[in-house]
Design brief:
This protein has four helices and no strands. The protein is elongated and about 145 Å long.
Length: 167
Amino acid sequence: MTMQDWMLPAVAVALALLAVGLAGALHRSRARTDDALAVARAESAALRAQLDALEQRLARPAPLAVDESEYVITHLGEEEPGAEPARIETALFADLVLRESVVKVAALAHGLRRALDPETRNRIRFEMRREVRRARKQRRADARQARREWEARRRAAGDVDDEDNAA
């Protein structure tokens, strides 16, 4: 037998093995998908049951209103007996703290970036100069007005000095 006689059966066997391998991979993939679908359906059923319970609780008539004059808080600041505080898993707690910290740092960085922007600094500098000039003018105007009122009171009282008459 020649090499060509063996080649056709070898290729056929290789293709058959490849087909069997692909079929096995497809079966495993389908099994994983079926398992994931079953888990999703179970979670959906649990959520639907919770939703039904919430709807039933909301559909119940509200309890009679309590006269507020009769309502007295007796355990202010005390924990109720048997009530255990909710526990948060360490991974969830770390995740929450990290997210909050990241948001705060991002907000601070954004604010600093905007505050230190040259355009913002120039605008602040301009506004400060304008405010200083306005305040200076206002102080001068107030001083002139006060001097005029003081001189008017002196004239009205007849306390005109000789120096004022000489001028």
